[in-house]
Amino acid sequence: MAFSLRKTPIDAETLHYTYRKNAPAFPGITPRESPMAQSRRTWMKTAAMGLGGLLASERNLAAQPVNHASALADPRDEIKITGLEIIPVNSLRSIFIKMHTDAGITGIGEGTVEGRIPTVVAAIKEIEPYLIGKDARRPAHHWQAIYRHAFYRGDIVLTSALGAVDIAMWDIKGKALGVPIYDLLGGPTRDRIKCYGQAESVEETRTHVLAQGYRSMKTSVSSTRGRLSRSSESPYYIDGFVEKVKAIRELVGPDFDLGIEMHGEHEPPAAMEIIKALEPFRPWFYEEPIQFQNLPLMAEMAKKTVFPFATGERMVTKWQFRDLLTAGAAQLLQPDVTHVGGITELKAVATLAEAFYADMLPHSKEGVVGFAASMHVAASIPNFLAHEVPSLQAVKGGPPNVQRSPMGKSYIKKPFVMTEGNIVLKGNLDGPGLGIELDDNLIDNERGIPEWKFPEMWDATDGSVRDH
User: Fold this and answer.
1) Nearest partner of 169 among 215, 105, 233, judged by Cα
2) Which pLDDT score, from 0 to 100, does residue 63 have?
3) What does the alpha-carbon distance between residue 439 and residue 450 come to, in Å, rounded to a whole number?
4) N or C: which end of the chain has fewer CB within 10 A?
5) What pLDDT, on the 0 to 100 scale, is given for residue 34?
6) How many CB atoms are closer than 10 A to CB 116?
7) Matching CATH topology for 81-178 and 184-440?
8) pLDDT, tens only, 284-307
9) pLDDT tens-place string over residues 121-174
10) What is the DSSP code (8-state) at residue 465?
11) Taking CA 71 as the corner, what is the angle to CA 70 and CA 73, rounded to the nearest 5 degrees?
12) Which residue range or ranges hold the Mandelate racemase/muconate lactonizing enzyme C-terminal domain (predicted)?
């Protein structure tokens, strides 16, 4: 059969009628009264937009991971926040919250400023009115609103309060969909989270690190010879740190990660002396070699050693970490999910770090809820190195029969189990949301425990204030 091109032009009315007759009904597209009211090009653009909207809607719905066997809500339903329950946890220097919803789903979160619990409690209460009635499934949106609607940008008090509610919203969203939070963040990039221990002596290294199966650790070099450091130090003082680190390195052997915690407690000249003196023991990293406010100087110091600097536990926004990375002041980032603004901001910092080929070494000294939240982020990112483990250094008082552990005993119903220095996702973090539930006796277990206060640090030689 032969075909030929039609030579007779089709008029606009015929063309419009043909499209009207054969086109599917798209949302937002209505038949026109006049054939000349809309051109062919405009009509096709409008139709494409309508179809694109439908497809985008379908993609967004389909993109949400859902485990229908465990999901507590329909993915399309709003889940409105009805109130917050704030639980000070003095034994961990922290604050847990419960976020209640009209769907009956409760999310838990944690945010803190150690030694400033009442201040952060007040900040959380100030955030609560905004949250009431909002959809808990939109943590990233609410993070932006809470942070940016404050005319004066908040620092650690606001970001810690924000972290508590952000973690709780992610927990609710995971429970509603029946999946772990790391699935909502793009899925796991690893099947276990490497953790490191901490010890301050050879004996502690033997009993608190090696005996518990860790294959990595850090030890602090804050003071020796019975005092804190001065601006520039003598060989006798520096040798005190050398003796300690040498003994620990000989115990753990060369096939073991050994980080050096400096905690920003040294003046730059003394810090550089310590860094150079400890290089023969091949440290895993130097943590907070100086206070982070002087990033240009930290960057200059970083160029004078082949071993990486780690810092960030006191930094609380992606913008602060941007400045750190741009300066080249550290190669390992240590944000704390309970300070930096929750899961939303921790993930943002990790993405920023990836662009600079920097690795994440998350800080986690406080509670097990934040520990869980941080591990979900660690499970989902490519540039994770290792994770700190919460301590129990603030426990004083409370019921004498209550036993606690860094893995969550007496805080969550099912404490984490560490295997050869790792938290394996399966069995620990693979439940919906955070995958943990608070211990039913938590509030009773906390009775009688006073709020922790930061120790004051003074120079023994002249009584002046020293950095902590």
Assistant:
1) 105
2) 64
3) 20
4) N
5) 42
6) 19
7) no
8) 999 999 999 999 999 999 999 999
9) 999 999 999 999 999 999 999 999 999 998 888 799 999 999 999 999 999 999
10) B
11) 150
12) 198-308
Every domain of the chain and the residues it spans: 81-178, 184-440
Ordered DSSP codes for 340-369: HTSHHHHHHHHHHHHHTT-EE-----S-HH
> Does 8 have pLDDT greater than 60?
no
Please say if the pLDDT value at position 208 is more than 80.
yes
Pairing of strands 197-198, 286-287: unpaired
Point out the least confidently predicted range of 7-11, 61-65, 69-73.
Answer: 7-11
Whole-angstrom distance, CA of residue 294 vs CA of residue 415: 39
Tokens of residue 385, six digits: 């190195």
> What are the tokens at 238?
């520096």
**CATH fold of the domain at 81-178:** Enolase-like; domain 1 (3.30.390)
Query: What pLDDT shows up at residue 47?
Result: 39
| Tokens, residue 445 | 């277990």
Amino acid in position 396: K
DSSP string for residues in 247-308 = HHHHHH-SSSEEEEE-TT-S-HHHHHHHHHHHGGG--S-EE-SS-TT-HHHHHHHHTT-SSP
Looking at domain 184-440, what is its CATH homologous superfamily? Enolase-like C-terminal domain (3.20.20.120)
Q: How many whole angstroms separate alpha carbon 320 and alpha carbon 30?
A: 51
Residue that the structure tokens 């204030």 belong to: 465
Of the listed ranges 178-187, 304-313, 334-343, 452-461, the one predicted with least confidence:
452-461
Q: Which amino acid is at 340?
A: V
Question: At residue 244, does pLDDT exceed 70?
Answer: yes
**In the predicted model, is pLDDT for residue 191 greater than 60?**
yes
Contact by Cβ (8 Å): 177, 184: yes
Question: CB-based contacts of 260: which residues, under 8 Å, 6+ apart?
Answer: 218, 219, 220, 221, 245, 278, 283, 284, 285, 286, 287
Active site residues: 263, 363
